[in-house]
Queue: 2 jobs
Job 1
Amino acid sequence: MFVGNCKTKTIHYQDCHYAAIRLHPENRVFFYSIEEAFRKGYHLCHFCSPLVREMRERKRELQTLSQELGISCFVRKGQLHIHSPHSQWYVLPADDGKRTLFHRNTLGKTDACHVQCTVRSGIPELIRYISAHDRYRRQHPLPAAAMPKPAAVKGSKRWRKEKKAAKRVQKRVEICRVLSLIDSLDRCRLPL
Ligand SMILES: [Zn+2]
């Protein structure tokens, strides 16, 4: 269970000292999971985030590793982000000391992301995993078919074809609507 501040959009672990002092009862909201709060636009408190604490404690080690692999690792609004030249990620603390690694989608919507994995590992291990993931992706690029098709140019052959198909669908929807209307009228008449 996490406690949030609906004014500042920050969430805290329930034992956070900062929240205990600063969080006014009127602004208090509760969440069962960080992910739920995150989806609603909340971010983790800088004081009680275990990831921020680990960043502080392992600063030297992380700096060396980041330089070695060319990956940057930073905290923004209490949130841990890991960016490599090929991909962008962020990490959320999960249950029982685990971490959930989110991969920002490079195809389609740029602001979308997917859960890559939930593991019990430290930030250096996650950075190494990302580096290996990049290497693999460079060797095995995603097929071009997975790329979303750009919108058809107005007046082009594909545009006309798509328009025709849309019209057909619309016609079918209208026919269904009329049929169900006749059906309902029939049902109304039956008792008489
Ligand atoms: Zn806190």
Job 2
Amino acid sequence: MIADLVTTGPSTDKPSCKAMPSSVIVHSPHGRWKVCVLGLHLSTNTLMITVFSLSPNFYDKVCPQALPTIKRVVEVAVHKEHHMGASLLHLHFHDCFVNGCDGSLLLDSTYFETEKIARGNFISVRGLEVVNQIKGGVDRVCECPIVSCDDILAMAAQDSVVAVIFNTLVRLGRRDSTRAWKYLANSTLPSISMDLPQLISNFKNQGLNKRDLVALSDGHTIGFSQCVIFRNRIYNATDIDLAFSKERRATCPRTGGNTNLTPFDLTLARFDTTYSKNPDAFWVDFGKSMIRMGNIKPLTGKQGQIRVNCRKMNK
Ligand code: HEM
């Protein structure tokens, strides 16, 4: 019962520039304990659980213009560079898989090393300038820094590719970390050398299951990959469409050009369900899995901070 309440209780308090939301208090006539998840208080006569949960309506009252502003900036950026939607989705994933969704990927190095230079991120992390633009725009319309950099990543990922499908579902209210974890990024981000059991186990470590792995892998129907990642396949594999590999070789030579970018498929800017037998079921799964990924260890309540500049922790 405790687990249910902890994971599902919606936040009732609304954030403001002066005070971010406090907590949900749940009383149970059957319980004998008072539990405060953040701060653990115990008492003998009530079950009281204090949770900070994510909610789609987190900014509705305090800054109704926040989400439309994020959407507008994303649309302009994608219009300018079609693959930008892919890059923003990729950022959200690489942020959430390293110690949870906390915007740590966006931080520059200080007393810690930035995650941006971790193995799976170096050169692969694109679109950071758009995140900074969104932050500037949102802080202006909200008249204060109330939207976390991490919520911006989550919203931008959604707006980039799947807004029509699960527009109202994305959960918000995350806060930003005060440090980054380069070494953790090296060990927790899935790598291209992993086989299926390893990928399943990698996702399991994040609390995600096989269905999430399959659904989220469809993120690769948009965006680019660097030549070094698929060179071996287009020159040596026998189970590959010849026309496709020929086209890829045009931008990925046998030697050199490691960082040349090539689209994953022929519709690089369109998130599609080409690889799914049942598109309707796929969209449902993808929406759910995106939310589950966005729920990985978020910072909420009084944890972390709302960064003023996504690249730096506040002084
Ligand atoms: C299952 C394990 C995964 C592996 C091994 C993997 C691997 C990769 C690799 C190697 C690239 C190319 C990066 C580059 O060359 O710069 C890439 C790009 C990308 N990945 Fe994944 N990925 C995985 C899961 C995911 C998930 C869960 C998502 C999101 C739902 C995702 C979304 C993307 C997107 C959108 C791009 C294109 C980025 C861009 O064009 O800027 N990937 N991935």
